[in-house]
Write a structure and sequence with these properties.
Length: 27
């Protein structure tokens, strides 16, 4: 149970970081 929750949290964080990187123009 806890392992699934931790894995889901890591996945969500990865998606947020990836989305932020894609939405931010490279300088």
């Amino acid at each position: 149970m806890f392992e699934q929750l931790r894995r889901a949290t890591l996945s969500i964080e990865a998606n947020i970081v990836e989305g932020y990187a894609l939405s931010t123009p490279l300088q």
